[in-house]
Amino acid sequence: MGYIRVSAASLARIELDGKLLLVLNRARLQAERKIYTPFGGALEFYGLARPFLVSIGADFEKDNDIRFVIFEEGLPKFENWFYQQIERESSPYRELREELVNEEGVLPNLPKSAVNLEYLTTTTGRAVTDRPGQEGKVTQRFFEIYRATFNHEYKQMLRTALAQLDTHLGLVTEREIIVGVSDSGIEIATNCKPMI
């Protein structure tokens, strides 16, 4: 057995007006490629998990992200740890706040009281990644899917942001996600499929 890349993410299924809210991926936009991705992103582990992850051979990509390369025989130990949901994040809240408030600037803030996060499922699968800097690596993916429901005030702010000419937000149907392209011609990333 050889090495395998592991990537664990928490994704937010945001339903608005009968469609799903996506965002243009920032890293790919900088490379002049428009592609819609879901809100959410890499889960982070907490400090006490590092010795365990190091013990199974994790070669980390960035800080405390659960994105790393390990020997494939270490994967069952990782999975056992992962599904216990200890010493790691277990919701997309941090990523939602970063993306909607700090990166896209479509919300002035995001208090926990403004959004309800309901766990739906965890999906797994293997794919060759096109993530910038990791292109071509076989990746074992873990996606925790949450339904994110915003209160009325915050839903209105999202609708206002969608109406802006320079918005990076988009509403798509499940059909568009399956096809892999929006009706407006923008590519939709494969990591949106676990949300449907």
Structural account:
This protein has helices at residues 26-30, 50-55, 75-84, 93-103, 152-162, 174-179; strands at residues 3-13, 15-16, 19-24, 35-37, 39-42, 59-60, 67-71, 115-128, 138-150, 169-172, 187-188. It has 196 residues and is an alpha+beta fold. The protein has one domain: Nucleoside Triphosphate Pyrophosphohydrolase (Alpha-Beta Complex). The strands form two sheets. Strands 1, 5, 6, 7, 8 and 9 form a six-stranded mixed sheet that branches. Strands 2, 3, 4, 10 and 11 form a five-stranded mixed sheet that branches.
- Poorly predicted regions are none
Q: How many structural domains?
A: 1
Number of strands: 11
* Overall spatial form: globular
Q: What is the subunit arrangement here?
A: single chain
Q: Specify the structural class.
A: alpha+beta
| CATH class categorisation | Alpha Beta
Largest sheet: 6 strands, mixed
In whole angstroms, the N-to-C terminal distance is 33 Å
CATH T-level topology: Nucleoside Triphosphate Pyrophosphohydrolase
CATH architecture: Alpha-Beta Complex
Strand content: 25-35%
Helix content: 25-40%
Q: How large is the radius of gyration?
A: 17 Å
